[in-house]
């Protein structure tokens, strides 16, 4: 049997992975034998398609988590006991998944666990970054301030992601809608006048013949096209959920013209912000880099930061490690080098965050402004071809009379 585990080393570093064992107890003993403190151990089961849909439907939205964090901060600042605060939040939360998690967290705290330990059991809702920030808050006693920061962080990340999605949604919607119009034209409109062309023996342009042939094929074999399309989407989606598929997907995202550069800037901004806050919270630089890698949302940058953390543990400077990686612009390593030299790494990371956040916002604004004329030209060309494929044969037909 295979078990997925989450554990901490003797140095307090987080470690996740899989272990093969006949029973759960045996798996626990194996991990303990490797000097790991086991936090969670679950049997890895084959995930069915419907289970994935269910998990997707039950996910907690970033906005719900942000509102929960903001309200939690207010209650903690008012010196409301944790149990009472969680009870109040349980009543106010509308997300059923988050509601269940809050109830379990409250029970764990009543049982003697710390807040961070209780949150750590719900990794699908509370990220490693979120949990580690709470740990630093428990040590420093700045619970309300940390919760305020987390709420601001979630809100900023949500707005940034929403802005990027908005820039992508508009062109995809317009192109998809226009594709439906073209499909209707070649499957319903063009076949109505095709017999007229055939009877008059008019020589048809190549793009007219292509559209007529495509329309006939889709009209006759639409069910086969639909089945193949659904199977293709399902296979691609299933592959993208694998470890290899995630790497391929994230590498492709970074290579998309214009959009790849936008995502790179967004990932660097996320890294700089989370690393800065974690270092301020008292974590070592390798620990901060390691945890920050899980907040980025891209396996390529995740692996790069893992490598950077390993090199820093061996004695290298962070600026040197990142300077050798082409995915990080020279500006990043140069500013980090200044921070390492002057002892103000946190301040320089904050400057990196501000710089690349502005870059992302400017890029998105420029894309939105440029997208409309680009789409108009593209759609105009396609419309011209579509009408030419109909009007040119009609013009030739009139010349025969």
Describe the structure.
- There is one protein chain.
- The protein has helices at 24-33, 49-57, 62-77, 82-92, 96-110, 115-119, 128-140, 143-200, 206-240, 243-255, 259-280, 285-293, 299-313, 318-323, 330-342, 345-399; strands at residues 2-8, 14-20, 37-43.
- It is mostly helical.
- The protein folds into three domains: 2-45; 57-126, no CATH class; 143-401, Receptor-associated Protein (Up-down Bundle).
- A three-stranded antiparallel sheet has the order 2-1-3, covered by helices on one side.
- Strand 1 (2-8) and strand 2 form a beta hairpin.
- Helix 10 (243-255) crosses helix 11, helix 11 runs antiparallel to helix 16 and helix 12 runs antiparallel to helix 13 (299-313).
- The longest helix has 58 residues, at 143-200.
- The protein is elongated.
- It starts with a strand and ends with a helix.
- The model is unreliable at 46-51 (pLDDT under 50).
